[in-house]
Amino acid sequence: MSIIETVDAEGSEAVSLHQRILSDISEKILSGAWPPGHRIPFEHELTAEYNCSRMTVNKALSQLAKAGLIERRRRSGSFVRRPQSQAAVLEIHDIRIEVEALGLAYRYQRLERLKRRSNAEDRTLLELAASGPVLALKGLHFAGQRPFAHEQRLINLAAVAEAGEEEFLDIAPGPWLIGRVPWSQAEHRIRAIAASDHIADVLDIEAGAPCLVVERRTWSAEHPVTHVRFIYPAESHTLVARFTPSQG
Amino acid sequence: MSIIETVDAEGSEAVSLHQRILSDISEKILSGAWPPGHRIPFEHELTAEYNCSRMTVNKALSQLAKAGLIERRRRSGSFVRRPQSQAAVLEIHDIRIEVEALGLAYRYQRLERLKRRSNAEDRTLLELAASGPVLALKGLHFAGQRPFAHEQRLINLAAVAEAGEEEFLDIAPGPWLIGRVPWSQAEHRIRAIAASDHIADVLDIEAGAPCLVVERRTWSAEHPVTHVRFIYPAESHTLVARFTPSQG
DNA sequence: CCTCTCAATATGTATATACATAATCACCAT
DNA sequence: ATGGTGATTATGTATATACATATTGAGAGG
């Protein structure tokens, strides 16, 4: 309630108030002190607690909401969100790097390239509202002589027009895109499938053998950029994800 | 370049100014009109262009910076960032929540429970240096009447002594641990396998059918806590990972 | 008892303002 | 030339204020 005359005599670090509110609250949530469903103090209460303006509190809470830790409801307040899910930083390496880390020669080979107007399936995969030009690619990543992964990709040419001029004969579209398009969001879907006859054929495995499928959708500031589906033979691939639960 | 006094006569949607500045700029970046390294107009210029206060512009630019699209430098201005490396936030939900989200009844059932001194394999899985007491558990997660996932877990009793007193007959060890042990690090390994005869039997699927395997190792402040291996029938499970680069 | 309306409330968005801070530039003295 | 010094500039953070908007809850009216 009082003016801030205590100048943080002890562990006085140069942390902004904004940051402190943020970390205080996420700590409470992550530690379980405030379980899912718990109502977070109202903005005006936090205003009093931290002796700051509502704008500062509001900014911090809005950020927590965007991060998915809390849910805000007008007139009701802010609440700790239910999905107390564990978040992990999953690093999906460039396939080339992955292959070369195994001491094998990397090679990419195009199987198919098609420029067309997006059909219904394309629009579903890319989450596109309207029809537009897309580039559909299929290719194989090799580790030494053996196929390592099959890639099936859609590129939204409305978002990345230059991609339409590329042949992608022996350069993989992934690194090409990464080097050109800044992306702001991605979604992965990971699952297991049995190899279809066709996939078994190109990957040189038995039909019905288990495969790991990684699908990735990428957005650059609201705009869908690309959708890609990697299929790995089960033996060749393990995804590794490491996680430290720090909140920014 | 001119002031926007046109009040969006046409597709006038209730979009906040904040949102409009945000999408305008990211569109410019995305389209390549502003390539990496390009200097974004100064806040005071955008203030004039959008005829709004600096705070509004600042908020939008700060958000773009947090999203990793631009980089801000004092005295110099804001610049389009070079594309970043890939990392993804993978959310692994509590199985109960996942099952209940499907509208099915959740149930956990213990298959096996063994308290013993860690053997060589245990120490590998837990990354333990010395031998010590561990709890080895096997159990099934049900969605309705059908098995949803098989769980095989090791708990380091040196780190979580109370776990040794628990039976885990029908409460799953995952939530039990989460509620008790603050964990500071986790590592996931994700891969596909063909169901062994035994796994096929307990999961009620065909032998050789593809399965998704998620292994998680958890540490609490340097101490290994638990290692768990989930096996999901391929049809029942897709991991979804969402990602926004860099957090605030 | 039910519905409709209106006031109260918490959040959402925006403004004007102020001062802090880091980086750069121009200038001056050596 | 060279090195320091201070002014300038753009962003960083915070405040007080205002009004919009969604939602809840209580009370009026049927």
UniProtKB/TrEMBL annotation, chains A, B:
Q: Which GO terms describe its molecular function?
A: DNA binding; DNA-binding transcription factor activity
- Which regions span the lipid bilayer? none
Pfam families referenced in this protein's UniProt entry, alphabetically? GntR (PF00392), UTRA (PF07702)
Keyword line? DNA-binding, Transcription, Transcription regulation
Q: Specify the domain of life of the species encoding this protein.
A: Bacteria
GO:BP terms for this protein? L-histidine metabolic process; negative regulation of DNA-templated transcription
Note the NCBIfam families from the entry.
his_ut_repres
Protein name as annotated: Histidine utilization repressor
The protein's gene is named hutC
